[in-house]
Amino acid sequence: MMRLPFKIAIVAGGASLIYFLFKGTTLKESAENIRVSLLNLPKITKIDLSGLKMSLDLRVDNPAKGTVKIKLPSIRAFYKGKLLASTAINNTMYTIDPVSTGKISGIIIEVGYLNLITNAPTIISDFAAKGATALIDSFGFEAIAEVNGIPVKVQKL
Length: 157
Fold this sequence. Notes:
It is built from three helices and nine strands. The chain is an alpha+beta fold.
């Protein structure tokens, strides 16, 4: 015959297992549903001896019913599919409240002169041929993120 403490341990263990399985599913669903997008067009903030620095702000939508912790270790900038630059590795954690939108401001991307010089002829000819609007449309950004400790696929911004 089983003793009462043993029965309590089995019930508590089963309840814990159910809780952690449910919690894991919730965290995974939160990670899959999070959306990161550009809040506005990037701005050139500085030109110095190391190159050009752009600043951008991100909007993070959290449709989940739980708080989400997001880490954006890398944002990459492209021109016509060619990598121009990426942010320095950043392990800052941002918290987004349930069913809300958050803002991550002041992300800096540094574009070195070598990348500028290699892509300058294409950028200048595109600007001359198509104008500023088409030029802006040729730039792209991607985010690599970690949501609640779960890596998220690269997302185009």
